[in-house]
Amino acid sequence: MSKQQEVTNLLTIDPVWQRIRQEAQDFHDVEPALEGFVFQSILVHDNLERCVAYRMAQLLGTADVSSLIIQQIFDEAIGSEAKIIIAIRADIVAFNERDPAAKRYIDALLYFKGFHAVITHRIANWLFEEGRKDLAFFLQSCSSRLFGVDIHPRVKIGKGFFLDHATGVVIGETAIIEDDVSILQGVTLGGTGKDSGDRHPKVRRGVLIGAGAKILGNIEIGHCVRVGAGSVVLKSIPANKTVVGVPAKVVGAAGCSEPALKMDQIIIK
């Protein structure tokens, strides 16, 4: 199925949006103090794209760049790039399935700054690729200030990306993150000095990176690797392995077929 066919199907039959609207209606009925908030954030909108653009604009708008302008930028980006439409839904599902604190799809949309940082980056990356680099860096700055997440707008990130808690996450310019990756708070995907060029990690599909881990240099973290909390990874890691320590060493298999989805962080050497 082509990307355009996927988008057409989403716009015709959209179970993620249908569930969000139902959850918002239930929320609307039981919490009158937030009636206006949930109505303006979700129920007034015709589709998930407009809902996300509005919510993010309310968070990111400043005296320098108004929420109305931010919303127009998000509308333009989402309307121009089919993969953003698909990724937003995959991200919402990822947050709901991997975070035990998420009981509803609307939790990430309304409250989780990890999700807000991911969506902000997707728009910043689109702007960067379009040559609108100053606006991309402006959004990066906003994300760093508001959400505690600093991702260079050039970074390519696949769909189904989960940033749990998110505070203190730093991802450098030439990093690549593939589909279905989970990263906890305090993680750095960085360089090793002042070298220019391709200098940041490549994180393959299904990787789980524990809290406080540092992965440094132009190295590859193979698909479905599990990186223990607090580890410092300086060398490439083959697929389906668990690494821990300073410096990190392979201590065994990944423990399951998809660490990023299972979110099992208990590592016994």
Report on the architecture of this protein.
This protein is of the alpha/beta class and 269 residues long. It has two domains: 1-148, Orthogonal Bundle (serine acetyltransferase, domain 1); 155-269, UDP N-Acetylglucosamine Acyltransferase, domain 1 (3 Solenoid), CATH 2.160.10.10. The chain has helices at residues 3-12, 15-30, 35-43, 48-60, 67-80, 82-98, 105-110, 113-129, 133-147, 259-262; strands at residues 149-151, 156-157, 162-164, 169-171, 176-177, 182-184, 188-190, 202-203, 208-209, 214-216, 220-221, 226-227, 232-233, 241-244, 249-253. It starts with a helix and ends in a 7-residue tail after the last helix.
Short description:
By secondary structure, the chain is α/β, with parallel strands linked by helices. The model has no long low-confidence stretch (mean pLDDT 93). The strands form 3 sheets. Strands 3-6-9-12-14-15 form a 6-stranded mixed β-sheet.
